[in-house]
Amino acid sequence: MKIDRPAPDLVPQLKLLWQLAFAEEDSFLKLFFDKGFAPERCRCVVSEGRVLAGLYWFDCEFRGEPYAYIYGVATHPAAQGQGLCRALMADTHRHLAALGYSGVLLVPQGESLRAMYAGFGYREATAVGEFFCAAVPEPQPMHPIDREEYERLRREYLPEGGVIQEGVSLVFLEGYAKFYKGLSFLLCAVPDGDALMGVELLGDPEVAPKVLCSLGFREGTFRCPGDKKPFAMFLPLRQGAPVPAYFGLAFD
pLDDT digits over 56-75, tens only? Predict the structure, then answer.
């Protein structure tokens, strides 16, 4: 068994593993491997030429230090229960520390995964305010913006203790999300059928019902800075690494 970055001929197996683990649509899978994937930001477990587990990360920044957002952790169904995920995570932590990263963040989907990552040494670090609302008849003045403007404005809107997510993270996000600016807010949003998912609403959350009206949705769910819902977990990779207070852009 070997844990390392993937060779080019293993990428098709990584794609298959992703499909088995997450059942994503082909369009999302293509987007990720076209825009979000790089072999140097991937570690996988390989045995006899077969990919048994893998993970990816995106670079981010907190207080001027490099942090990693680990994403897409998966073990092949036929190889589960063998401790491969634990071994892969431990290897990745060592690898990232050697590269100079100060800490690692991830956003587990569900309480069982939160418990698993707690067993790997992660601790609860950030929370969000997440709320559902219906549209009101009055529209909210706002306009779409491009990725570059969103990147610049997001630094201004981030709350104290917020993690900076830029570069490849926003290139990938731009593939399925839209960015908007209003007088008192900044929004990253994704259509979800007849509803809207406000991936991140920075600024005034009271605008949400009017935003739905402006974008033509009857209802939606929005995430914003807050303390209602546990969100990212954190593992320091060096002693004294600062703990973020807000992490907003999860690629779920």
Answer: 999 999 999 999 999 999 99
Cβ-proximal residues to 241 (8 Å cutoff; 6+ apart), any chain: 65, 102, 103
Over residues 95-118, the mean pLDDT reads: 96
String of DSSP letters for the chain = -EEEPPPGGGHHHHHHHHHHHH---HHHHHHIIIII--GGGEEEEEETTEEEEEEEEEEEEETTEEEEEEEEEEE-GGGTTSSHHHHHHHHHHHHHHHHT--EEEE--SSHHHHHHHHHTT-EE--EEEEEEEE--SSPPPEEEE-HHHHHHHHHHHPPTTBPB--THHHHHHHTT-EEEEESSEEEEEEEETTEEEEEEEEE-GGGHHHHHHHHT-SEEEEEEE-SSEE--EEEESSTTPPPPSB------
Reading the block at residue 129, the tokens are: 């305010």
